[in-house]
Amino acid sequence: MNRKWLLTFVVFLIGFILNVPLLNTLLTSFKTDAVISSFPPKMVFPPTLEHFDNVLFASGYNFPQYFVNSILLATLTSLFVVFATLPAAYAMIRLNFGSKKLLPFTTSLRLFPPIIFAVPYYLMFQYMGLLDTVTALVLINTFLNLPLGLLLMIGFLQDIPIEIEEAARIDGCNVYHVLFKIVLPLMGPGIAAVAILTFIFSWNDYLFAVIISLNEATPVTLGSTMFITSWGIKWGDISAATVLSVLPPLLFTFLAQRYLVSGLSMGAVKG
């Protein structure tokens, strides 16, 4: 029993240490500017919501629109990655289409640093007239997350007994019926895992947001830095913006946690 409590304490301590930056950001978002600049730092202070008010309602910053852009970016990217990788994984594993050459080529793209695609993407979207659009960011993040989504989908699909599909074919189901009526329901946890991870990675994108977006397509990751001005750094506003930008993926992951855990654990235990 003592060992169990010791292990719990160690895990709690490690979790607390890892989350100190986030906790400090949360505390800073409720401090006044005077308390933030005080030395030594004050741990007890009267809380204020002025920084959240500045972020959401101050003139010159359209932070609610940044939220809409990020939600569109993460949601659409997740949908596109799921819709693309599910049939692709099925074709490669069950139909043996492109599994020898196309699969290694696709997954190897994940090994390249994303920065090498920056200039080609910028020139391509400039030519297409898609600079500073959410569409461009969705296309970029879809491309970047396809290799990981495909690898996960293949792993989940390989854990489904092929005998189930063979029985469905004997009953007269074609390939599309097997995929959408048999495989798709069984792949639910795996699809959820791919969607959640893609949502988080797309929401956290900063590199291409800096390169592609100028004003209209600015997501929260880039919008949070706009409180760094030539007159100084607004630490309270930045902290409030950071806290607000963390809430959607955190809430989304919390609500879908059981699907994420069950999806990532598919195949971990073999009978």
Tell me what you see in this structure.
The chain has 271 residues and is mainly α. It is 70% helix and 1% strand. It has 15 helices and two strands. Strands 1-2 form a two-stranded antiparallel sheet. Strand 1 and strand 2 form a beta hairpin. Helix 8 runs antiparallel to helix 11.
What is the strand and helix layout of this fold?
Layout: H1 2-18, H2 20-29, H3 33-36, H4 50-57, H5 63-93, H6 102-108, H7 118-128, H8 134-158, H9 162-170, H10 175-186, H11 188-203, H12 207-212, H13 220-223, E1 228-229, E2 232-233, H14 235-255, H15 257-264
Antiparallel strand pairs: 1-2
What is the gist of this entry?
The chain has 271 residues and is mostly helical. It is 70% helix and 1% strand. It is globular and about 75 Å long.
Low-pLDDT segments, ≥5 res: 267-271
Share of residues in strands: under 5%
Distance between the termini: 31 Å
Count of DSSP H/I helices: 15
Strand order of the largest sheet: 1-2
Helix/strand order: HHHHHHHHHHHHHEEHH
Q: Round the mean pLDDT to the nearest integer and report it.
A: 82
Radius of gyration: 23 Å
Label the structural class.
mainly alpha
**Major β-sheet profile:** 2 strands, antiparallel
Percent range for helical residues? 55-70%
Q: Give me the count of strands.
A: 2
Structural shape: globular
